Amino acid sequence: MNYLVKKGIPKKRLTPKGYGESKPRVPNKNDDGSDNPESRAKNRRTEFKVIGEMDVEVNYKE
User: Fold this and answer.
1) What percentage of residues in the chain have a pLDDT greater than 90?
2) pLDDT value, residue 44
3) In the prediction, which pLDDT does 47 show?
4) Region 19-35 average pLDDT
5) Does the residue 11 lie in any domain?
6) pLDDT band for position 54 (50/70/90)?
7) Segment (H or E) for 5
8) Integer Cα distance of 46 and 23 in angstroms
9) Domain containing 30: what range?
10) From CA 47, how far away is CA 39, in angstroms rounded?
11) Measured distance CA(32)–CA(19) in Å, rounded
12) Is 43 a domain residue?
């Protein structure tokens, strides 16, 4: 969220939501019930939806 604000997206247009534990992409456990660090890494992600247009141009290049 901070990155998008620094790039010019108004903070009032952003709503952060965390779904890592409630909506994992892959199971966090192995078949034997042990923890799977690789899967947990895949579930640590950021997703966002573009829901409108802005009246200003935003530069996305670093």
Assistant:
1) 16
2) 84
3) 77
4) 87
5) no
6) low
7) helix 2-6
8) 12
9) 17-49
10) 17
11) 24
12) yes
Q: In the prediction, which pLDDT does 16 show?
A: 83
CB 55 within 8 A of CB 3: no
Token representation of residue 22: 């409630």
Q: Decide if pLDDT at 45 tops 70.
A: yes
* Amino acid at position 50, single letter: V
**Total domains present in the chain:** 1
- Report yes or no: 4 and 12 within 8 Å, Cβ to Cβ: no
- Average pLDDT over the chain, rounded to an integer: 82
What distances in angstroms separate CA 15 from CA 5, 9, 10, 49, 58, one per listed residue?
12, 12, 11, 10, 19
Residue 48: which residues within 8 A CB-CB, separation 6 or more? 4
Residues 6+ apart with CB under 8 A from 6: none
